[in-house]
Design a protein that fits this description.
mainly alpha, two-stranded antiparallel sheet, 16 helices, 46% helix, disordered C terminus
Length: 349
């Protein structure tokens, strides 16, 4: 962190130690060694190297070049056998600082990392790092819910309204998964269910975990982070459904909503109640079975799969969804009146 001092890393003269030992300050016995000399014959890892002040980076440079320590101008010939490992974001990702040129020249190897290149790898990393085993109720995350959460990050990284310099780290899907499981766990405790199964509604409940991890460009600021996060979830749901179901026929579902029917789905509904509500929608249960999203008798995953299908239809603008989880027929886009000019005025003469 920026408040790290040269005394913390390298060391400093300790006047109290000198007074208690009866030494003059020029005596090497008055020196208090920092973390780096104490890591001799080991590996010293230092995070966020550009955040360190130039004075500290010069101290590291001396160790890498000469292999000794200089404290308060006294060249202490303390030979160190230590492997230095630094981490830093790419220079164009941060404006907080930079690595001084002499130190960067002494770094032996530079290893560049990147975001997961495919969804499966990202899901594996998220599954490994996320806190889902709570030690209470059993947690079962459907594969398609994990894929939706992972695809939110992939969609965000390709969205032009999100700042590419800041990037979208892997912490986004990890935090979203943890929040989604927490919301599902709260519901399971409230409804008396014996298993925690998150669904798409729980991904919407984790919206603050998305907006807190993205930085917006000017166009994104005009739209708003919450609106963009909603769009990311819908696009991710559509992509996850397409990867599993392909071009299946959903006309019966759309026609049922077009006739004026609607569904109100809240995050507090139990899995059994939600599955009974979806039984009113024609062909949706058969579609869940045909695409192998859920098996018969598994009400929790069936409810989550039905939500996935509706979200995919919302993303394709075949249905509409309110912020309260009200699914209805697609709303016609607003049209500008023909007697208005581009600036919202009346007829031009």
């Amino acid at each position: 962190t920026p408040d790290v001092t040269i005394a913390d890393i390298i060391g400093d003269v300790d006047p109290i130690k000198a007074a208690r030992g009866g030494h003059v300050l020029a005596d090497e016995l008055t020196i208090h060694y920092g973390m780096l000399p104490r890591a001799n014959r080991g590996i010293f890892a230092l995070n966020e190297l550009p955040d360190l002040a130039g004075k500290i980076q010069v101290g590291l440079f001396n160790i890498m070049q000469e292999g000794d320590v200089q404290i308060k101008g006294y060249p202490v010939r303390l030979r160190l056998d230590v492997l230095l490992c630094f981490t830093a974001n790419p220079e164009d990702y941060t404006a907080r600082g930079k690595i001084i040129t002499p130190l960067k020249d002494r770094i032996g190897s530079e290893i560049l990392t990147h975001y997961p290149e495919d969804v499966d790898l990202g899901m594996e990393i998220t599954r490994q790092e996320a806190w889902t085993n709570r030690g209470g109720l059993a947690v079962r995350v459907p594969d398609f819910v994990s894929e939706v959460i992972e695809r939110v990050a992939f969609e965000a990284r390709s969205d032009k309204r999100i700042d590419k310099r800041s990037g979208v780290s892997q912490r986004l899907p990890i935090t979203v998964l943890e929040n989604a499981v927490s919301n599902a766990e709260r519901r399971a405790l409230a409804t008396g269910e014996c298993e925690v199964v998150p669904r798409i509604t729980d991904v919407y409940a984790a919206l603050p975990a998305i907006t807190g991890k993205i930085e917006l460009e000017y166009e994104g600021e005009l739209v708003g982070g919450q609106v963009i996060a909603d769009e990311l979830i819908r696009r991710a749901a559509d992509a996850a459904f397409q990867s599993r179901a392909g071009n299946v026929n959903t006309d019966e579902i759309v026609m049922w909503f077009d006739r004026g029917n609607a569904l109100q789905l809240t995050e507090d509904l139990s899995a059994a109640a939600l599955a009974r509500a979806f039984e009113r929608v024609p062909s949706i249960m058969e579609l869940v079975r045909e695409t192998s999203l859920a098996t018969a008798g598994d009400a929790a995953v069936t409810a989550a799969a039905c939500e996935l299908i509706l979200e995919a239809l919302v993303a394709r603008k075949k249905l509409s969804r309110s912020a309260a989880g009200h699914y209805s027929r697609a709303q016609a886009p607003e049209r500008r009146r023909p007697n208005q000019d581009l600036f919202g005025g009346g007829m031009m003469s």
